[in-house]
Design brief:
Elements lengths: L4 E7 L8 E9 L10 E5 L12 E2 L4 E9 L3 E8 L6
Antiparallel strand pairs: 1-6, 2-5, 3-6, 4-5
Length: about 90
């Protein structure tokens, strides 16, 4: 099974205030073959668990999930196509 990774870094800062905010992550999978197990978000927000945060197909091969994050922190994440960390 092949997993496709997309790596990004996001930083949330609101004038030094610590609050939580909803952040929506979206990825266009139209150029990829989506694994039957789905597309997932893994990163510092879920201890890099590759299956803890599944994305939902919104249509037109756009997958999305909204998570609540603490502002003022940097969050690293990857989109995982499938449920394994293969290259």
């Amino acid at each position: 099974m092949k997993a496709t990774f997309y790596s990004f870094l996001i930083g949330l800062s609101f004038m030094g205030l610590s609050q939580t905010v909803d952040v929506t992550f979206k990825v266009d999978m139209s150029a990829e073959t989506v694994d039957p197990t789905g597309v997932f978000l893994a990163g510092t927000l879920n201890s890099w668990n590759s299956t803890a945060t599944p994305l939902v197909d919104e249509g037109s091969d756009i997958y999305a999930v909204t998570v609540n994050l603490t502002s003022g922190n940097f969050h690293e994440f990857k989109f995982v196509n499938g449920n394994t960390w293969e290259n």
